[in-house]
């Protein structure tokens, strides 16, 4: 097993989490999943069940997912066997 690309995992998790947050925010604009958006808005300032709120949440989500990807990749690479 090789090492993970820190930048690659950061970008991929950032984009994936941003897309999820955006979709939930926009669905909440139609009344679906408003509880999830209300809960997440306590962490993501500006996140709301609106079109603009969804975009703001996606920006927060990208950075949140990217940081998680960096941490996961660094920890994985620390413990992976050298080949």
Q: Largest sheet at a glance?
A: none
Residue share in helix: over 70%
**Continuous helix count:** 3
Report the structural category: mainly alpha
Overall pLDDT score: 95
Strand content: under 5%
Radius of gyration: 15 Å
Low-confidence segments, given as residue ranges, are: none
Number of domains as seen in the coordinates: 1
Distance between the termini: 7 Å
Reading the helices and strands in chain order gives HHH
Describe the protein in words.
The chain is mainly alpha-helical and 83 residues long. The protein has one domain (6-79). Helix content is 71%, strand content 0%. It has three helices and no strands. The N and C termini lie close together (7 Å). The mean pLDDT is 95.
């Amino acid at each position: 097993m090789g090492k993970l690309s820190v930048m690659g995992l950061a970008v991929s998790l950032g984009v994936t989490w941003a897309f999820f947050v955006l979709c939930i925010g926009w669905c909440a604009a139609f009344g679906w999943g408003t509880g999830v958006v209300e809960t997440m808005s306590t962490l993501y300032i500006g996140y709301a069940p609106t079109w603009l709120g969804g975009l703001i949440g996606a920006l927060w989500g990208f950075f949140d997912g990217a940081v998680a990807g960096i941490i996961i990749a660094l920890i994985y690479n620390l413990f992976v066997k050298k080949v």
